[in-house]
Specification:
- The chain contains eleven helices and nine strands.
- It is of the alpha/beta class and about 260 residues long.
- β2, α2 (about 40-45) and β3 (about 55) form a beta-alpha-beta unit.
- α4 (about 100-110) packs across α9.
- The radius of gyration is 20 Å and the shape is elongated.
- It starts with a helix and ends with a helix.
Length: about 260
């Protein structure tokens, strides 16, 4: 905004929200377009000082691979998971924060014969070493560090246990994977959690014990998983394409 004001008055600018709320910095900006995750959030952005004519509800863009139509059974087999197993994928950000170790302990104590758990530790080497030492040889438990195959891993999941990061929760929604959300980080992520709870595609609990119990019970509740999947049902409109179309119109017809 300052660059446009002081040096490039004709430069077209936009903001793409990656959380399900109006972040505090928005009120200090003055851009041509604000692309937001959903029309239901318009009031938040209007309250943040954005005028209605500059708002566009397009969704949050994520990699198209998360929308892959691969069969879940085939995705599971690619990771060495039996097709008839229910697969829980768990991670808590790229740095493996939150109560991942405690929840893993609780899950592994109660996992059934037809359930598999994959824990992604990210860049948290200490967490990976401890969990791999403790559970690396346990059947139906997969401990991984940094991963480069998150889209197919998500496609193989029946349930995703994670903190409500704006992008990670949107990736799960795009893949149609119900979520158990860990309220681990204050701020914008609390709004993300509320959004998916109200949508019906996620649930949450307060303690590690409750989160683990909730996740395992959901894995055994096919009807509830289907309800949550239906609530997430991604539309045919792809956010990145919709945003791109708006940018083209803005570039070709500055008055739009």
């Amino acid at each position: 905004s300052e660059v446009v004001k002081t040096h490039l008055p004709n430069l077209k600018t936009c903001f793409i929200a990656t959380d399900y709320t109006c972040s505090p910095s928005v009120k200090d900006s003055s851009l041509d377009r604000y692309f937001i995750p959903a029309s239901s959030l318009s009031g938040d952005f209007l309250g943040g000082g954005v005028t209605s004519e500059r708002l566009r509800a397009c969704g949050i863009p994520v990699r198209q691979m998360f929308r892959s139509s691969v069969r879940k059974e085939d995705a599971k087999r690619a990771f060495g998971i039996p097709a008839d197993h229910k697969h829980l994928v768990m991670m808590c950000g790229s740095m493996g924060c939150g109560p991942i170790r405690d929840i893993t302990e609780l899950l592994c104590e109660n996992i059934s014969e037809d359930q598999t758990v994959t824990v992604v530790c990210g860049s948290n080497e200490e967490l990976y070493e401890k969990l791999n030492k403790r559970f690396g040889s346990v059947p139906r438990v997969h401990i991984r560090a940094v991963v480069s195959d998150m889209p197919p891993l998500m496609q193989s999941a029946d349930l995703f246990l994670t903190k409500p990061g704006g992008l990670s929760s949107t990736e799960a929604a795009a893949a149609g994977v119900p979520m158990v959300l860990i309220d681990a980080v204050a701020g914008c992520e609390e709004h993300n959690l509320d959004f998916f709870l109200k949508l019906g595609g996620a649930v949450t609990a307060e303690t590690s014990e409750e989160l683990a119990e909730l996740a395992l019970s959901l894995l055994s509740d096919e009807a509830r998983l289907k309800e949550m999947f239906a609530a997430l049902a991604p539309s045919d409109v792809i956010p990145a394409e919709k945003i791109y179309a708006h940018l083209l119109r803005c570039a070709n017809k500055p008055e739009l």
